[in-house]
Amino acid sequence: MKKKILIIDDDVDMCRLLTRFLTRNGYDVEDANSGTKGIEKFKQGEFEIVICDYKLGDKEGKEVLEEIKMIDPNSIVLIITGYSDIKTAVEVIKSGAYDYITKPLIPDEILNILAGITKESGTKNKEQASVKKPQTDGGLFLRGESAQSRELYRQAEIVANTDYSVILYGESGTGKEVIAKTIHNMSSRKNKPFIALDCGTLSAELACSELFGHVKGSFTGAAIDKEGHFEMANGGTLFLDEVGNLSYSIQASLLRVIQERRFKRVGGIKEMPLDIRIIVASNENLQDAYKKGTFREDLYHRFNEFSITLPRLTQRKEDIPLFAEFFLQKTRTELDKSITGFDDDVLEFFADYSWPGNLRELHNVIRRAALLTTTEKIGRQAVPFEIVAGNENADPLYSEDQIRIFKDAPGSNKELSLKKSTAKAEYDAILNALVMVNFNKSKAAELLNIDRKTLYNKIRTYEGNLAPAAE
Q1: Bridge partners of 266?
Q2: Rounded distance, CA 118 to CA 4, Å?
Q3: Is a pLDDT exceeding 80 seen at residue 59?
Q4: Cα-only R_g, the chain
Q5: pTM of the prediction?
Q6: Are 229 and 238 in contact (CB under 8 A)?
Q7: What is the distance between the alpha carbons of residues 317 and 337, in angstroms, rounded to a whole number?
């Protein structure tokens, strides 16, 4: 049966091209030339996939995404944009987009993503027929089988059946949003919206608008009425990540709304009732924060009806092979590769590494390793230096000079300025190219699409950081 796709783009020509292209490739396609029309069409039809432009004439793609997710939380939405910065990518993925594609569009890339969606659906169906498999939440998140993981989910299950507010503590990358979604999905609100907001990205000027919405003309730039995150999550769950970053004045507004269970949009006069469950997350202990005077004590007690601390990845080492395989399965689908697993020594390196970025870092390492791998299994050659070189028992696959690359990388262990950040990005690209061709400079230059002389000059720029490589 053909998958039904809705394309939302105010560029009529782009809509026509995409519609013709996807129809020729076996999809049932309809289109809409504005965000409003797209949402109306989505309500009327049974679309499995939505492809939406980020910049529309009447709405942003993020707004369309959030409204579609309110209509159907299980909908699959792909966002297309010409603004290929990481902030936009993170924003739409956090808001629930399945993936993010940049212009100019590459037809094969779109087909690969759509094929990946089909494969994931097939994989889930096969897994459901399997008697013994690792436990997942909706097929999207692996729970883990260590004592620490079991205790984590035991606590999540206990609080899920209540309406308690929850504070999630944990280092970056430990999966706080995953646990928040899990609590929501196990609760009586599971068929209502789950809305996430990263408070660390909010400016003081726009925080109230993002939280509570605004009416047209309430401030400069308020061209249309806009729903806030509280309104979008009404009836469901609102997840506030890095809540400790909110200013003291915003905390006061937040406290009032939580106490009264009513709110008004910025510039509005109409109060709206609020039925919502709030889950917040923080890297910092909020009790310490209120003692230091950076977080309101009364707001802390409102949130602290229940708290859960997520373990670091190194605290549940027995789960590392399970998570590694889980992420590899997802990456196999994403890259359409037939990698069967990991060499034994790679799993040993994983077990001995400190994982400062926790599960997010493990996922990224496996995606990079899978991209570099051309063999049946992922070997140490595809694993980042810091993981292999940091293992005292590792065989000397790399020379001491080569191992020094990751230790002396530009800007490592310091606050990066914009200039240093740019240098590090260039450095990483050169390093990755050298690794892929076993430090052959001629091949690396070809891979980087620069001449050999330019590569030599770049290497000299990072004098002492890049190791002498094979000619």
Answers
A1: 214
A2: 12
A3: yes
A4: 24
A5: 0.57
A6: yes
A7: 27
